[in-house]
Amino acid sequence: MGLLDLLFGNKNEQLQEFITKGAVIIDVRTPGEFQGGHIQGSKNIPLQSLQGQINAIKKLNKPIIACCASGMRSSSAASILKSHGIEVVNGGGWSSLAHKLNQ
């Protein structure tokens, strides 16, 4: 276990825990970016539309894994979702996340 794991927890373990709980992957990139490639089964809700989808996301009653291209927008999305009491983790870039999830 590295120093970063001690400080921030092991993200891979957290991702696997969320998947076990039936997490929904929300990709916050633009529709055009999403069409260029995405994780199978993920939902595309662009970051600029996220605020208007909070109630629909809450109705899913599932933890959320947010992803984007690099992890910057998904970090913002995770902050927004957390502020509304939604269990969320920033999955980072979608292609890296897909690899971690073995997709």
Q: TL;DR?
A:
Helices cover 50% and strands 17% of the residues. It is of the alpha/beta class and 103 residues long. Residues 19-102 form the Rhodanese domain.
Keywords:
single chain, 103 residues, alpha/beta, four-stranded parallel β-sheet, 7 helices
Explain what the structure shows.
The chain is an alpha/beta fold. It has a domain at 55-103. Helix content is 50%, strand content 17%. The protein has 7 helices and 4 strands; from the N terminus they run ααβαβααβαβα. The protein has helices at residues 3-8, 11-20, 31-35, 47-50, 54-60, 72-83, 94-100; strands at residues 24-27, 43-44, 64-68, 88-93. Strands 2-1-3-4 form a 4-stranded parallel sheet, sandwiched between helices. The longest helix has 12 residues, at 72-83. The chain is globular. The model is unreliable at 1-8 (pLDDT under 50).
Helix-strand blueprint:
Blueprint: H1 3-8, H2 11-20, E1 24-27, H3 31-35, E2 43-44, H4 47-50, H5 54-60, E3 64-68, H6 72-83, E4 88-93, H7 94-100
Parallel strand pairs: 1-2, 1-3, 3-4
The parts where pLDDT drops under 50 for at least 5 residues are 1-8
Quaternary structure classification: single chain
Q: Structural class, please?
A: alpha/beta
Report the helical percentage. 40-55%
Termini separation (Å)? 25 Å
Any idea what the radius of gyration is?
13 Å
